[in-house]
Amino acid sequence: MHCPFCRHPDSRVIDSRTTDDGLSIRRRRQCPECGGRFSTVETASLNVIKRSGVIEPFSRDKVVSGVRKACQGRPVTDGDLALLAQRVEEILRRTGSSQIDTNEIGLAILDPLRELDEVAYLRFASVYQAFESLEDFESSIAQLRADHELRASAASEATTD
């Protein structure tokens, strides 16, 4: 990395620390030429392969903007959306792959969105999974109901133990 003060092409790392979220490393550097000190932040790259074949860096902002449309009129805050985007990125990073296609991102959004707001989930899923009929909606709603019943029975068993 070039020194931001004198543009010398080298620097020496004098301290490294993991950031609070554990997803990046903050390095304190010193230029051997001018002695200037500066910090850098390193993260593992995560790239998205779009349907057109174009590769671009992953963006939490794009996740938020895509999900925001499904959340219009719902009691979902910007903070909720930021947390959802963070969870999606964590899910994608756990795959161990540095390149993710857009379909995998959509799949990674579904579960956290369902936990956040079921109506927004149905809206997003209807577009993402290309619902074509009322039966598609009914099937998805039936799955949500079955999940509710499973959670309710599990909670009931946990309180009786």
Automatic annotation (TrEMBL):
It comes from the Bacteria. Residues 46-136 form the ATP-cone domain. Signal peptide: none annotated. The keyword Metal-binding applies. Its cofactor is Zn(2+). Binds 1 zinc ion. Keywords: ATP-binding, DNA-binding, Metal-binding, Nucleotide-binding, Repressor, Transcription, Transcription regulation, Zinc, Zinc-finger. InterPro entries: ATP-cone_dom, NrdR-like_N, RNR_NrdR-like. A zinc finger (unnamed) spans 3-34. Negatively regulates transcription of bacterial ribonucleotide reductase nrd genes and operons by binding to NrdR-boxes. NCBIfam families: transcriptional regulator NrdR. Belongs to the NrdR family. This is Transcriptional repressor NrdR. It comes from Microbacterium binotii. The lineage of its organism: Bacteria, Bacillati, Actinomycetota, Actinomycetes, Micrococcales. The gene is nrdR.
